[in-house]
Amino acid sequence: MVYWFSEWALEQLKGSSWEEMFSFLRLFQYITIRSAGAGLTALAMGLFFGPMIIRTLQRAKFGQDYVDKAEEQGLTNRIEKKGTPTMGGILIIPILDISALIWAQWNELVLITLISMIVLAGLGFYDDYVKITKTGNKGVSSTVKWITQIMLAAGVVIYFAIHPELKSIITELRIPYWKEPLLTNAIWIGAPIVFFTLIGSSNAVNLTDGLDGLAIGCTMLVAVVLAVWTYVSGHVKFAEYLQVQYVPGSGELTVFCAAILGAGLAFLWFNAHPAEIFMGDTGSLALGGSLGVMAILMHQPFILFIAGGVFVMEAASVMIQTGYYKYTRKRTGVPQRFFKMAPIHHHFEKLGWYETKVVFRFYILGVIFAVIALSALKIR
Fold this sequence. Notes:
The protein has 380 residues and is mostly helical. 68% of the residues lie in helices and 0% in strands. α5 (108-133) packs antiparallel against α12 (280-297). The mean pLDDT is 90.
């Protein structure tokens, strides 16, 4: 919106005595300036509306009025979380969307990302609402979640398939540290990768959302990596110099990443230990899905696998735990656990690590994974 307004204003003022006075509007043509604007707008809005949203959720009794799974399984050396407002995604997602729409130059890449985020936020909101309004902590069935996510992924794949300028996303296989596509005309592998990336990233962030500040902090680290990649991918000269796939319009996703950072920082202000509000599925499913979509649009889904190493650890720990439990039950008749508890952040709590120590050490891992992902820009 700001981009279009600045263009319109400069055109109207061209040749007039006001042209020089308002020449600063040219700054809004630059992605870097608009990214800064998006981040600061989201941060300011989040800090301003945060207390009001928390109070509204408290009055509506939209809090975690049940014992969470961690406490059910014996994690009692932590601050009581019962009663803390959840659905914190309603603080993040609307502010993020508004900031992105104000500052980004709208194109189909931005709209695909926004639509995917809104769909997953709606699914997460419904899941959180069911958990709050029904007895216990059971949300919507896994079947409903899977069907919604699969339909969204299918819609994205079909959209790519029918638009020639985007079709290479599902026909070419690109991997980090490799200049040229590993495979071409390989829709048989490209489409499943889109499914896996979108659905996997959404659920991985959801699984990570178990400790105060953990999911949002790791999300922001991944957003920094994607901001750099989207900027490079959308810049003809940088893309050519670094020999990465040039994706016209992807630079506008840098503005979206900046909005994630701003909204994330504002949310972390209230979500830091001891949390005043939880992200809930409303935020975690949507944020995870948006990271996946942006990685797909850059032709670099495996960069997300590296940058989001913490999310991969969390998801893998759940799969290993479940698989090992079923295997030992079938093999010996006595089910056993591979980890003391999954996702893996609870395993370390079981080892006696305090919640904040787990979070900050996972942040350190997140920084390491981010640096490795960024190194792929040069090591090719």
